[in-house]
Amino acid sequence: MSKKNFWKIQNNVSNSLIGELFLYGPIASSNNWDQDVNTPKQFKEDLDKLGDISELNIYINSGGGDVFAGQAIHSILKRHSAKKTVYIDGLAASIASVVAMAGDTIVMPKNAMMMIHKAWTICVGNANDFRKLADDLEKVEETIISAYESRDLTIARDEIVKLMDAETWLTADEALEYGFIDEVEEEKKVAASIDGGFLVMNGTKMDLSNYKNKPKFISLNEPNKCDQTKSVSEPKIDDEKVIENEIPLIYFEKTIEINEKKFKEEEK
Predict the structure, then answer these.
(1) Of 94, 97, 193, 219, which residue is the catalytic one?
(2) Does domain 1-188 have CATH number 3.40.50.620?
(3) 94 part of the active site
């Protein structure tokens, strides 16, 4: 299934042209997956359709994907002459976090997340194949580190490596502290749920089984429905509905526990 075009162009008050691109969902080298994906080819075509723009806003909500496709999209953006502002709408994980580094300014809501980790792959072969693969992966990781280092980070290279080794999930405040982003903005309404081992954020699905270090929490938001002056106990989560709440910390473990309980009941 090919990806739909997600782009538009508008004039601002100073009559300069502002383009917008949306990178939502997986990143892949080609669109032969049975889902909407972001490919370098489609991304370049959408960018070219914006024409001669002076500013470009890029909105990201992606769990990552193909590292080389992500690096290609990052390079396409870096070469573009427009002033680039990246907005992380929910999630910028894995290679999607590298794409985000192409922004001149990177903005992240308080309830969004960024995840950085070491490159990984699946291999079939003999011992020599695996040794070569390990060497190749280390070279790939160097390109990822270089993308992070292109920003004015507050942490040294060895600290970046430690964060990647630990497969680290960063809140907006942590990303700002380390220098991965430039601004933290107020929480945006985020629709999130756990669906059969998948984290779904604003319609973007991410397979949590692919990661050894699952995120501990997520900040969610919805219109005010209660008196905020009252103390708030642990939220009651409806199994059948998307989780939307203003309480700043909702633990994934609780959500997973509820879904596992429901699954066991259905098996009876």
Answers:
(1) 94
(2) no
(3) yes
